[in-house]
C-alpha cells in the first residue's frame, strides 16, 4: 500500500491562516474527503492541476 504525504501549513497570508496543503489553497478536510470518496489519486490530482504527487 502506497502512502501519500501532504505537508499541511498555515500562513496568515494564505486563506486567512487556515491550514492548507503546502503550495496550494486546498484545505486538509477537502483532501481527506476526496480520498475517502475513492477515486484514484490521478483523478484527484486532475481536479487540482496546481497540486502534485510526490511518490517516495
What's the story with the biggest beta sheet? 2 strands, antiparallel
Radius of gyration, rounded? 12 Å
Tell me the overall shape.
elongated
Helix share, percent = 25-40%
Q: Which blocks of ≥5 consecutive residues have pLDDT under 50?
A: none
Number of helices: 2
Mean of all residue-level pLDDT scores? 83
Helix and strand composition category? mainly alpha
Order of helices and strands: EEHH
Strand order of the largest sheet: 1-2
β-strand amount:
5-15%
Q: Report the strand count.
A: 2
Concise summary:
The protein has helices at 28-37, 41-47; strands spanning 8-9, 20-21. The chain has 2 helices and 2 strands. Helix content is 30%, strand content 7%.
How does this structure look, described?
The protein has 56 residues and is mostly helical. It contains 2 helices and 2 strands, in the order E-E-H-H. The protein has a two-stranded antiparallel sheet. The longest helix has 10 residues, at 28-37. The two termini are 12 Å apart.
Helix/strand layout:
Elements: E1 8-9, E2 20-21, H1 28-37, H2 41-47
Antiparallel strand pairs: 1-2
Tag the structure with descriptive keywords.
single chain; 56 residues; 2 helices; 30% helix; two-stranded antiparallel ribbon; elongated; mainly alpha; 2 strands
Amino acid at each position: 500500500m502506497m502512502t501519500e504525504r501532504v505537508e499541511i501549513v498555515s500562513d496568515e497570508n494564505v486563506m486567512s491562516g487556515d491550514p492548507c496543503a503546502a503550495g496550494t489553497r486546498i484545505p486538509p478536510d477537502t483532501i481527506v474527503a476526496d480520498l475517502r470518496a475513492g477515486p484514484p489519486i490521478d483523478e484527484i490530482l486532475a481536479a487540482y492541476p496546481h497540486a502534485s504527487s510526490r511518490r517516495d
